[in-house]
């Protein structure tokens, strides 16, 4: 079973994403900030990360820099409320395989994006 780490500080959204991905056959873990996400990543391996950019403690950009520093090569899909082209380009330069604006995507579309990268 493929494992996904959801890093999202909006707890209701993180839970709904987790439930939807679980029902699609994935195993999920949830972190509500970048600091705890990095702690989880130091102990467990994942097949994919869904990463918010604006979070407490450590933001998504910091998580990207730590993944690179620690040589952790896991595909990252950014899920953010930041929809500006420069935010998208910055995330892709940091290594995001995909990017979606949370307000512009349904949960079904999110699951389909995940399936694309985990087949």
UniProtKB/TrEMBL annotation:
One Pfam family hit: Response_reg
PANTHER family with a match to the protein in the record: RESPONSE REGULATORY DOMAIN-CONTAINING PROTEIN, STRESS RESPONSE REGULATOR PROTEIN 1
SUPFAM superfamilies, A to Z: CheY-like
Domain of life: Bacteria
Phylogenetic lineage: Bacteria, Candidatus Daviesiibacteriota
Residues modified to 4-aspartylphosphate: 52
Originating species: Candidatus Daviesbacteria bacterium RIFCSPHIGHO2_02_FULL_36_13
Response regulatory domain: residues covered: 3-117
GO BP annotations, alphabetical order: phosphorelay signal transduction system
PROSITE patterns, A to Z: RESPONSE_REGULATORY
InterPro entries: Bact_response_regulator (IPR050595), CheY-like_superfamily (IPR011006), Sig_transdc_resp-reg_receiver (IPR001789)
Keywords: Phosphoprotein
Protein's name according to its UniProt entry: Response regulatory domain-containing protein
């Amino acid at each position: 079973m493929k494992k996904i780490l959801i890093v999202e500080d909006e707890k209701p959204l993180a839970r709904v994403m987790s439930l939807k991905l679980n029902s699609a056959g994935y195993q999920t873990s949830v972190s509500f900030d970048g600091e705890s996400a990095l702690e989880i990543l130091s102990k467990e391996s994942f097949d994919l990360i869904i990463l918010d950019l604006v979070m407490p403690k450590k933001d998504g950009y910091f998580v990207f820099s730590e993944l690179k520093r620690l040589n952790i090569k896991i595909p990252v899909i950014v899920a953010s409320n930041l929809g500006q082209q420069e935010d998208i380009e910055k995330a892709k330069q940091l290594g995001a395989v995909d990017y979606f604006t949370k307000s512009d995507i349904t949960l079904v579309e999110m699951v389909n994006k995940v399936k694309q990268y985990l087949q």
